[in-house]
Write a structure and sequence with these properties.
alpha+beta; Immunoglobulin-like; 7-stranded antiparallel β-sheet; 16 helices; 29 strands
C-alpha cells in the first residue's frame, strides 16, 4: 500500500518568503491582531489549556497557532517565534507514554463537545508539521508517529464524532505527510479508517443536494465544514487514485457556485449554505479554510482552476472581512454591505455578526483568521517532484529551493500583481541547469504573452491551466509574463451584475463612519454607517476605464487603492432595505428623473461598505 502520486508537492514552510505588498500584509498582521491576540483575548491568553492553563482547551489555541507559526517564520520575527515556541514546547512536553498529548480535559463553549474528541488534535498536527518544516526539529516526526499509534489503538472504540466527522480530511493530511517522511504502513491503514469515518463528501459533491438556503442545523451544510470538506476527495484520491474523486470536486464546486455562489468567489454561509442573495453573509473561517482547500487541491490534481479560485478568494473575500490596520474583523461579510451594525438579519447568526471587532458573534474566526495570508505565501509555488517548479499564485515573493539535479536556486517574483498586469520572475542559479517551470495561466486571461530576457517566447499549449516551459536556465535569466486584464461583468441572480478585472472583483465604495460599539484598550468593536448614497445601478454598455495609482503599503484601503475603474451609473428608486440589509437588486430598476453620474469602483476587499452586485440600467 502506498500513496498515489500527486501532480505537485508543497515546498517546506520558509522556502517561500513574501515580498512587496504581500509582505506588508503579513507585517500588518504581526503588528495587529495576530501578533498581540494573547495579550487582549483570554481564549488564547495565559490560561489557555494548550499551555497548561485551566481555560479554553479545545480548538482556539490550535487555530491561533495554525496562523501564528507560519507568520512568525515567514517574517523571521523573533518575538512571534518565541510566542509560538511556547505553545509548541508545551505540547511536546505533554505527550504521555501511550502517545496521547495535549490538555487533560476539554473546556469549550461548544456544549456538544464534552468528552473524547479528535478535532482539536487535527489542527495541532498541522501546526506541528509547519513547525518541523520551518525548523527541522528532529522531535516532531517521532512525536507524530507515537500519537498516530495511539489514535490507531483507540479510533474504533472512540470514532470521529461531531465536528471531526466532516473534517476528517485534516487528519488524513497529517497522516499522509508523516507517511511520506517515514514510510510506516500503519499510517495509510489508519488514513483509510479515518476516510471511512469521515462524511461522504465525494457523494455529496457528485450529487449535490443542497439547492437553496438551508434553514436548519446539519454538519453537511455548515459553511466551514463545506469549505474544508471540498478537499476530502483529494485526500481520498491520494489513497485510491480514483478519477471519480477529482470529478466529484469539479462538479461540487460548480454546484456550490450555482446554488450559493457569491461575487467574491466564495459560496454563502451565515452559518449554513444560504443561497445567492448578495446580502447573505459568509463566515471568515470559511474564507481561510477554502483557501487552504484550494491550496491542497492544486497540489494534488495540478489543475490551475483551483489556483484561480484561490487568488479570487484571497484577493477579495479575505481582505474584505479584516480592517485595513488588522485591529478588527467581521464574522460574516456581505457582497452588498451597506451598514455594519447590531441588527436582526435574515441569517442564522446573531445580531452582531457583521460588526468589525475582536470577537463579533463567535470566537472561532478570531482564532482562525490568521492562517489566510501566511498559507497563501507558503503555497504560492510548488515542486513538480522532478526538479521543476510550479507557480500557483503570482503575488510578490522570493523562492529559495533546489532545482534540476539539486542546484541551489532563488527566484524573485515582482510586479505588484494582481494590481498590475505584468509579472517578472528573476532567476539566480548556482550554475546553469535544465528544469521545468509550470506557469499557471489564469482562465480569465485571453491573450497572455511571455518574454525571456526581453525576447518573446511562444507559449506552449496549456494543460489543466498550466504551461510547461523547460529549458537550460542561466543565472540572471528574467521571465516576464504579461496577463492583460479585461474588465468583464458577470450576470448573477435577477440579471444583476458583478464587475471583475483579472482576479480582482470591483465594488462601489460607500462612505464609512466608524462608531464604537465596545471600546477596548486596543481591539475595539465597531459599527459602520454609510455617509454616501449606495442605491446605484450601472449603465449598460458604458464600459469601464482603469485608473492606475501608486502602490501603497495597504492596497486594500479604498481611498488609496492602486487601481480603480471609472464607469457611469444612476440612482435607483426601487431598491429598499430589507431586514437591515440591502434588498435584492431590482430586476427593473426605476431611474426616472435621475442623471447619469460618474462612479469610481475600487477593489472589493478595500471597501468595508460597498455594493458589489448591481442592477443594470438599460437604454439611457
Amino acid at each position: 500500500m502506498k500513496l498515489h502520486a500527486t501532480a505537485f508537492e508543497s515546498l517546506p514552510l520558509g522556502r517561500i518568503k513574501p515580498l512587496g505588498w504581500l509582505r506588508d500584509q503579513l507585517r500588518l498582521q504581526a503588528d495587529g491582531l495576530t501578533g498581540h491576540l494573547e495579550e487582549h483575548w483570554k481564549d488564547v491568553g495565559p490560561d489557555n489549556g494548550w499551555i497548561g492553563g485551566q481555560g479554553e482547551s479545545w480548538e482556539r489555541g490550535p487555530y491561533y497557532l495554525d496562523g501564528l507559526v507560519p507568520l512568525a517564520y515567514l517574517l523571521e520575527d523573533e518575538r512571534l517565534i518565541a510566542k509560538a515556541r511556547r505553545w509548541i514546547e508545551w505540547s511536546l512536553a505533554s505527550q504521555q507514554e501511550d502517545g496521547s498529548f495535549g490538555p487533560d480535559r476539554i473546556s469549550t463553549v461548544n456544549a456538544e463537545v464534552a468528552s473524547q474528541d479528535w478535532w482539536h488534535y487535527m489542527i495541532m498536527l498541522k501546526v506541528m508539521i509547519q513547525f518541523e518544516e520551518a525548523t527541522g526539529d528532529a522531535r516532531i516526526v517521532p512525536f507524530l508517529v507515537k500519537f498516530f499509534r495511539y489514535v490507531a489503538r483507540h479510533i474504533d472504540e472512540c470514532p470521529l464524532r461531531e465536528w471531526a466527522v466532516p473534517r476528517g480530511a485534516e487528519l488524513m493530511l497529517a497522516l499522509h505527510w508523516t507517511y511520506r517522511r517515514t514510510g510506516e504502513p500503519f499510517l495509510l491503514e489508519l488514513s483509510g479508517v479515518v476516510s471511512r469515518q469521515t462524511t461522504d463528501w465525494t457523494g455529496i459533491l457528485e450529487r449535490f443536494p443542497f439547492w437553496r438556503k438551508v434553514e436548519h442545523w446539519d454538519h453537511r451544510t455548515h459553511v466551514v465544514n463545506v469549505a474544508m470538506g471540498v478537499k476530502t476527495p483529494g485526500l481520498r484520491y491520494e489513497l485510491d487514485g480514483s478519477a471519480e474523486q477529482e470529478e466529484a470536486v469539479r462538479k461540487g464546486i460548480d454546484s456550490l457556485m450555482t446554488h450559493h455562489g457569491q461575487a467574491h468567489g466564495m459560496f454563502s454561509g451565515d452559518e449554513w449554505l444560504s443561497g445567492t442573495h448578495p446580502s447573505q453573509g459568509v463566515e471568515l473561517c470559511a474564507v481561510v479554510e477554502y483557501m487552504y482547500t484550494m491550496e491542497q487541491l492544486v497540489r494534488i490534481f495540478g489543475d490551475g482552476r483551483y489556483g484561480d479560485i484561490l487568488e479570487k478568494v484571497a484577493f477579495n473575500a479575505l481582505p474584505a472581512a479584516i480592517s485595513a490596520d488588522w485591529t478588527s474583523h467581521q464574522y460574516d461579510q456581505q457582497v452588498n454591505q451597506v451598514v455594519c451594525n447590531v441588527a436582526k438579519r435574515d441569517w442564522s447568526n446573531g445580531d452582531e455578526a457583521n460588526l468589525f471587532g475582536l470577537e463579533p458573534h463567535f470566537g472561532c474566526c478570531t482564532a482562525n483568521m490568521h492562517q489566510g495570508w501566511p498559507k497563501l505565501v507558503s503555497h504560492a509555488w510548488m515542486s513538480d517532484g522532478a526538479g521543476g517548479l510550479a507557480v500557483v499564485s503570482y503575488a510578490p515573493c522570493e523562492v529559495r529551493t533546489t532545482v534540476g539535479s539539486g542546484v541551489e536556486a532563488a527566484l524573485t517574483v515582482s510586479g505588484d500583481y494582481p494590481f498590475r498586469e505584468s509579472v517578472a520572475i528573476g532567476l539566480a542559479l548556482a550554475r546553469p541547469e535544465r528544469f521545468a517551470l509550470h506557469l499557471r495561466l489564469p482562465a480569465w486571461c485571453e491573450a497572455p504573452r511571455l518574454y525571456l530576457n526581453g525576447s518573446e517566447l511562444q507559449i506552449p499549449q496549456a494543460e489543466k491551466g498550466f504551461v510547461r516551459v523547460e529549458r537550460e536556465w542561466q543565472d540572471g535569466d528574467r521571465l516576464e509574463l504579461r496577463l492583460p486584464m479585461r474588465t468583464v461583468t458577470s450576470t448573477r441572480n435577477l440579471y444583476a451584475v458583478s464587475v471583475e478585472r483579472g482576479p480582482l472583483v470591483y465594488a462601489l465604495p460607500i462612505g464609512e463612519q466608524w462608531l464604537p460599539h465596545v471600546r477596548r484598550e486596543r481591539f475595539s468593536d465597531w459599527e459602520i454607517y454609510p455617509t454616501t448614497a449606495w442605491r446605484y445601478g450601472l449603465l449598460q454598455d458604458v464600459g469601464f476605464e482603469p485608473v492606475l495609482g501608486e502602490m501603497t503599503r495597504q492596497p486594500f484601503l479604498a481611498r488609496e487603492a492602486p487601481v480603480k475603474l471609472r464607469t457611469k451609473g444612476m440612482l435607483v428608486r426601487n431598491w429598499p432595505m430589507e431586514g437591515s440589509s440591502a434588498g435584492a437588486p431590482p430586476l427593473n430598476p426605476h431611474t426616472e428623473g435621475q442623471e447619469a453620474v460618474e462612479l469610481e469602483l475600487v477593489p472589493y476587499g478595500s471597501a468595508k461598505l460597498r455594493i458589489g452586485e448591481f442592477p443594470v440600467v438599460h437604454g439611457k
